[in-house]
Design a protein that fits this description.
There is one protein chain. This protein is mostly helical and 207 residues long. It has two domains: 12-91; 92-207. 83% of the residues lie in helices and 0% in strands. The protein has helices at residues 10-16, 19-33, 36-57, 61-88, 93-122, 126-156, 160-186, 192-203. The longest helix has 31 residues, at 126-156.
């Protein structure tokens, strides 16, 4: 009995068309991410966290704070590198669109959260109100960090539909920041952090 030769269907050919090129692109991208500068970032992150933990145990809080901040900066830069790699190696416009949607809804989550915190702060007074405003500002900075990751995707986008999708998202975000700043001022809860985020957004061309 001879072995049966199974031929792939035309759909298999369609699915694998250009796959080798895509695999090579992914490998090239990973090599870029795994380069010396990225390894240095990883070492820097691990060192900062390790030393910060030691300072925390020995109650050297100022030193721990500085090192944790440095670790967060390294992690932030690593995030940007992998985001860029994901977009660069996406096999189709559809894959890129799904990824952009993921980032979009994460940003909307942050937006809803600081609006929620503002609403809660309105029901409070004194120190509890200040604590909720401080939480709001933290979430606001997180949203700014995410927008900082999204901006290069917008500027480098070759597909007009994706570019428009991101543009609309950023415009909605800055409109929300403007409304937040106005509401804080009108309710006597002005936030220097919110004003700085708004200024940063405008400096980066978000209208």
């Amino acid at each position: 009995m001879t072995d049966r030769i199974i031929k792939p269907s035309k759909f298999a050919y369609l699915f694998t068309d250009g796959l080798d090129e895509h695999i090579m692109e992914v490998k090239t991208g990973l090599e870029e991410v795994a380069g010396d500068s990225t390894r240095a970032l990883l070492i820097r992150f691990k060192y900062a966290v390790g030393r910060a933990n030691e300072h925390l145990i020995s109650e050297e809080y100022q030193k721990a704070m500085a090192l944790y901040y440095d670790a967060s900066q390294s992690a932030d830069e690593m995030t940007q590198r992998f985001l860029s790699l994901l977009i660069k190696t996406a096999p189709s416009i559809a894959h890129k669109t799904v990824f952009i949607e993921f980032l979009s809804w994460r940003l909307r989550y942050f937006t809803a959260q600081y609006d929620y915190h503002l609403a809660v702060a309105q029901t409070l007074s004194g120190l509890p109100r200040e604590e909720w405003i401080a939480r709001l500002e933290t979430i606001l900075v997180l949203s700014q960090s995410l927008v900082d990751k999204i901006l290069p995707l917008y500027r480098d986008a070759e597909d007009l539909a994706i570019q428009k999708r991101v543009k609309d998202l950023l415009e909605d975000w800055i409109t929300g920041i403007r409304n937040l700043v106005l509401n804080l001022k009108s309710w006597g809860m002005a936030s220097a952090q919110a004003s700085r985020v708004l200024e940063w957004a405008m400096d980066n061309g978000i209208k």
